[in-house]
């Protein structure tokens, strides 16, 4: 299946971040009717530029803090109301903070959980919605360990486990809502440009610095590939977008229930 984005209504959380902005641009180019940009802070310059380039499309900002469940519910509900519907929801918010594990888990993992659960309630067919697609931007560090940033890595593994579970056909058949996880590799955004508090212990700071000398991709190509993955509408699919490429991966099965 290839989802036609033309005329759809989309909300992008973390939409003013590096990867979030790239996603917003591609969705606007591909003809979304309405775009709700949800983030901690309004970026007036980006909004103005997008409104100039896409004058017929409705583009607006809503405050969200993904670490606060009630704020998430209120912000996403208000965005749906303003657009008169919601077809696509993407969560591209995130932080890298190893010295405040609570905050890192709250934003990266609980944020993913809060936004996804709210999407089910707002978009699910079982609740009178039309179904649609949810994309959770996780990381290649949701798939592989990374010794200098253990907390961030745990938060991203959690995001993958949650998305794989909630994307199950059993949910999909009830809700009509496809859940997809995308895993970017190192991408040139603020998250990795001079990051603060980005090593679990002082003694791994050098190891973290080494990681940051690895090859990166630009946010624009990452955003393009994330939208490509989204357009498959394939619930439960997991995609790596790294160094300008996109590929779907199969997760290994280590264990199943025995009856
Ligand atoms: N840049 C990379 O190398 C890389 C690699 C893999 C995965 N990722 C993931 O991609 C996503 C986007 O990151 P990015 O690289 O664009 O970083 P970024 O720092 O440019 O953007 C992050 C966005 O999240 C928003 N945000 C932070 N805390 C929030 C909160 N509590 N509530 C709502 N929004 C909040 C920020 O305001 C910002 O707009 C993140 O989930 C990140 O973990 C990034």
From TrEMBL:
GO MF term list: alcohol dehydrogenase (NAD+) activity
One Pfam match: adh_short
Xref: Gene3D superfamilies: NAD(P)-binding Rossmann-like Domain
Alphabetically ordered keywords of this record: Oxidoreductase
Domain of life: Eukaryota
Keyword Nucleus: no
SUPFAM superfamilies to which the protein is assigned, alphabetical: NAD(P)-binding Rossmann-fold domains (SSF51735)
GO cellular component term, pick one: cytoplasm
Family statement drawn from the similarity comment of this UniProt entry: Belongs to the short-chain dehydrogenases/reductases (SDR) family.
The protein's name: Alcohol dehydrogenase
Lineage: Eukaryota, Metazoa, Ecdysozoa, Arthropoda, Hexapoda
